[in-house]
Amino acid sequence: MAPIVSTRCFVRCSSPSCSSAARPAAQDVQEYGSGADKHRPALARLLGGIAPGDTLVVVHLDRLAWSLTHLIQLLDTLTALGVGLRLLRNPIDTGSPAGRFSLHIIGAVAELEQALNIERTKAGVAAAARNGRLPGHSGLRARDAAVTQKLAPARQARALNRARHGLAPWLPYIEAQRPAAWETVARHIAEASGSDGQRCRSG
């Protein structure tokens, strides 16, 4: 019986509202965060569950790797697993030496482009500061209570979203402790938050 293979799509988004229309895979994984962020638990879980013969699909190279070194490490990992890599915007066959070489070149260019973007951003912020313009929301800088209250829900939603993705790798360990140790976990959470812990215990 032939082994079952699948196509896995990895999508890194800078915000939860990013478009995912270009995802052809039956199984896909989303991760939210900056391209320079090296902590990518969703990508780690995907690589942990991928199988020989599978194909990893990525829209663009900078959605996958944060540096050329990271790209080379990922390619070595995928090759060792017998997994193919497909780029939707840069159609390259990673199964051939020429394809892998081309991917390294593209990765180097992507890393250079990211570095140049960072430098341009820093230069723009410095120029704005020299002209008396500071980055960020003027109301928040002035600690305007009305502005802070107005923006609070959106800021809390972003913080909660980051927390959820940061907690993802730990949830299996926490869930494995229920129900035996959950009362202890709830008590520590309640002590830290100053609540009675009822919501934790009832979960």
UniProtKB/TrEMBL annotation:
InterPro entries: Recombinase_CS (IPR006118), Resolv_N (IPR006119), Resolvase-like_N_sf (IPR036162), SSR_resolvase (IPR050639). SUPFAM superfamilies: Resolvase-like (SSF53041). The keyword Disulfide bond does not apply. Pfam families: Resolvase. Residues 1-132 form the Resolvase/invertase-type recombinase catalytic domain. GO terms for biological process: DNA integration. Coiled coil: none annotated. Keywords: DNA integration, DNA recombination, DNA-binding. GO terms for molecular function: DNA binding; DNA strand exchange activity. The keyword Isomerase does not apply. This is Recombinase family protein.
